Amino acid sequence: DDDAALLADLEDPDAEGGLVRPAPVLAIVGRPNVGKSTLVNRILGRREAVVEDVPGVTRDRVRYRGEWGGRPLTLVDTGGWDIDAKGMASRIAEQAEVAVEQADGVVLVVDVTTGVTSTDEHVVRMLRRAGKPVLLAANKVDDERGEIAAAELWSLGLGEPHPISAMHGRGVADFLDEVIEMLPEHSQVDDAEAPGGPRRIALVGRPNVGKSSLLNRLFGSERVLVDNVAGTTRDPVDEIVELGGRPWRFVDTAGIKKRARQASGADYYAALRTQTALERAELALVLLEANETLSEQDVRIIRSATEAGRALVLAFNKWDLTDEERREWLAREIDKDLAHVAWAPRVNISAKTGRHAEKLVPAMERALENWDRRIPTSRFNAFLGELVAANPHPLRGGKQPRILFGTQASNRPPHFVLFTSGFLDPGYRRFITRRLRETFAFEGTPIEISMRIRE
Ligand code: GDP
Ligand code: GDP
């Protein structure tokens, strides 16, 4: 019947029992100017990874979703590093290591017009230690003459050098076929835990907001569980803690603690860590300064969390420092900046004094419960029926798009699909979203609504 056909239409090929299996992660490493960003752009088929010569630029995005031959993959571009001249070789290797740690496979790009340098050799040694599968791209082979120079890269001991021209596309398609061959079907590093394991939390926030202090507080006072939780595999970068009577997995706590050691390229790392942690987590616990207005970086982090489709809890830290007089003014400013995530629970805490840290748990539980929610199709359609009866879509040029049917296509986070007889105004869609939130209390979770227009 019709509804069954519509529902079959919605089957999400990536979803397995409600868990989306993440795409494999490919790190593209190499010295500055060898053509990493150019290669990333070629794979993405657009100029998204900015190719630029300005040193010290901080990039917002370092991970990109792409696909090749119908296979999805996540690209980590390491081109955004802020490298200083001193100790450059070892520093590049050290920095590439972070990206490689989080990847399922690696492409090392070498520039054949300059040949092998000591920096390349440093990077190769690091790659050997990391033990991840690697393919060697001999870039800037714009024509046949470059092939000989490419063959010299056998000396790196990474196997066959693949001559490509990232700029002109020469050899890139064959090379990418091999890259896809090398990668596992689903990421082994980003892989989600089996259902029933501890909920996965990404504690994120700008530097110095108090992430390490909060971890110390949470992990210091409570029993730390390691291996003996059902459904967990031991991952040295995560930590599990029991809070409010249940275990929670804080992902990539190692990354939070490591931060201080990374002097150069610190902003790049912060962005990379944040995005990776968000991808591995179910909920983003975003730490903000209670005593300051939101910074651009705070806003970016919140945006990354909602774009990643994670449940969200906002914690205002350093409450012990807040000043009564500023508080009212601050609250107004902060409300303005948070208008788009007014649905996220807020908790005021102090990692230093321990104030109200226990309130984090019920807020996280609420947010995750709503993130997991499924609204039965009958109930959702009853809601739509009432809404449309009381507030029909405004007439547009004598026509009125109708909502024929709706259903929740997936959860984590809730995603609703409306089948309509025409295009719904953005304003009307926002109205539906607002009503959905009012009616079903989706506190703490982003919700998505999409349309399918039936002629
Ligand atoms: P990254 O620092 O490794 O990300 O390098 P970029 O992608 O920014 O490239 C550095 C420079 O090399 C830019 O001027 C590119 O246009 C150039 N380039 C990249 N790939 C090729 C190529 O295949 N052939 C040639 N001739 N130039 C290239
Ligand atoms: P991270 O960079 O986000 O991990 O921040 P840290 O945990 O290293 O904290 C940065 C600084 O803020 C340190 O000097 C902490 O002692 C201080 N700090 C963290 N939480 C609080 C708090 O609740 N109150 C006060 N007064 N200081 C705090």
UniProtKB/TrEMBL annotation:
<feature type="binding site">
    <location>
        <begin position="205"/>
        <end position="212"/>
    </location>
    <ligand>
        <name>GTP 2</name>
    </ligand>
</feature>
<dbReference type="InterPro" id="IPR003593">
    <property type="entry name" value="AAA+_ATPase"/>
</dbReference>
<dbReference type="InterPro" id="IPR016484">
    <property type="entry name" value="GTPase_Der"/>
</dbReference>
<dbReference type="Pfam" id="PF01926">
    <property type="entry name" value="MMR_HSR1"/>
</dbReference>
<keyword id="KW-0677">Repeat</keyword>
<dbReference type="InterPro" id="IPR006073">
    <property type="entry name" value="GTP-bd"/>
</dbReference>
<dbReference type="InterPro" id="IPR015946">
    <property type="entry name" value="KH_dom-like_a/b"/>
</dbReference>
<feature type="binding site">
    <location>
        <begin position="252"/>
        <end position="256"/>
    </location>
    <ligand>
        <name>GTP 2</name>
    </ligand>
</feature>
<dbReference type="InterPro" id="IPR032859">
    <property type="entry name" value="KH_dom-like"/>
</dbReference>
<keyword id="KW-0690">Ribosome biogenesis</keyword>
<comment type="subunit">
    <text>Associates with the 50S ribosomal subunit.</text>
</comment>
<dbReference type="InterPro" id="IPR005225">
    <property type="entry name" value="Small_GTP-bd"/>
</dbReference>
<feature type="domain" description="EngA-type G">
    <location>
        <begin position="24"/>
        <end position="187"/>
    </location>
</feature>
<protein>
    <recommendedName>
        <fullName>GTPase Der</fullName>
    </recommendedName>
</protein>
<dbReference type="InterPro" id="IPR027417">
    <property type="entry name" value="P-loop_NTPase"/>
</dbReference>
<feature type="binding site">
    <location>
        <begin position="139"/>
        <end position="142"/>
    </location>
    <ligand>
        <name>GTP 1</name>
    </ligand>
</feature>
<feature type="domain" description="EngA-type G">
    <location>
        <begin position="199"/>
        <end position="372"/>
    </location>
</feature>
<feature type="binding site">
    <location>
        <begin position="30"/>
        <end position="37"/>
    </location>
    <ligand>
        <name>GTP 1</name>
    </ligand>
</feature>
<comment type="similarity">
    <text>Belongs to the TRAFAC class TrmE-Era-EngA-EngB-Septin-like GTPase superfamily. EngA (Der) GTPase family.</text>
</comment>
<comment type="function">
    <text>GTPase that plays an essential role in the late steps of ribosome biogenesis.</text>
</comment>
<keyword id="KW-0547">Nucleotide-binding</keyword>
<feature type="binding site">
    <location>
        <begin position="317"/>
        <end position="320"/>
    </location>
    <ligand>
        <name>GTP 2</name>
    </ligand>
</feature>
<feature type="binding site">
    <location>
        <begin position="77"/>
        <end position="81"/>
    </location>
    <ligand>
        <name>GTP 1</name>
    </ligand>
</feature>
<dbReference type="InterPro" id="IPR031166">
    <property type="entry name" value="G_ENGA"/>
</dbReference>
<keyword id="KW-0342">GTP-binding</keyword>
<dbReference type="Pfam" id="PF14714">
    <property type="entry name" value="KH_dom-like"/>
</dbReference>
